[in-house]
Automatic annotation (TrEMBL):
Coiled coil: none annotated. It comes from Thiopseudomonas acetoxidans. The lineage of its organism: Bacteria, Pseudomonadati, Pseudomonadota, Gammaproteobacteria, Pseudomonadales. The keyword Transmembrane helix applies. The keyword Transmembrane helix applies. The chain crosses the membrane at residues 12-37, 49-70, 82-102, 135-159, 165-188, 200-217. Residues 11-214 form the Urease accessory protein UreH-like transmembrane domain. This is Sulfite exporter TauE/SafE family protein. Keywords: Membrane, Transmembrane, Transmembrane helix. It comes from the Bacteria.
Amino acid sequence: MLDVVPLLISAFIIGLLGGGHCIGMCGGLMGALALAIPKEQQHKKLLYLILYNLGRIISYAAAGFIFGLAGWAIDQSPAADALRIIAALLLISMGLYLANWWSGLVKIEQGGQVLWRHLRPIAQRYIPIQKSSHALSLGLLWGWLPCGLVYSTVIWSASQGDASLSALLMLFFGLGTWPTLIASGFAAERLTHFLRSRKVRSAAGLMIILYGIWTFPGPHHHWLIEH
């Protein structure tokens, strides 16, 4: 179990560093959800935001497991290195996107619109949130919102060749996004401004680019493969 700890930490950090992107994709929704909670339900705001985000990361974990099954099948074939190369390239693209140096990843996000067009009308039924089950259901659906950060991370997690580990990595990635999105639900302007600042986004993007380079197949991965 100890051999997967560095991967879990990496997944959490990717989610945490992607905070600026998360604010752009979901921060507005979190603020809107908080504002749309009826006055008589305001004392449940934190509970609703937690349940929404819980549903969101459950969806991430489910996606990790589904893609992890495909990753496991590919890992048994000569195409295993190709999947790791794709994962590395996506992480590098995500880093460039976070740092506002290149926005090519937006085109990949657009591909997810096909699924989202079917899910969005269902998600809108739960707004405004009236009870706990609505918050959880909305999060479960919103977890499939087209997002380059999620796509990059899920392919990286799938490249590990283990569906259960892939799901766990996506769970930790989702946990890494929690601080930012919970704070945005409470209109924490200082944190939002900090995470969206050019220096922070550039630093976060650079770190993810470096991790993407590290993800490329090579001798440095032998210790992971052996475990």
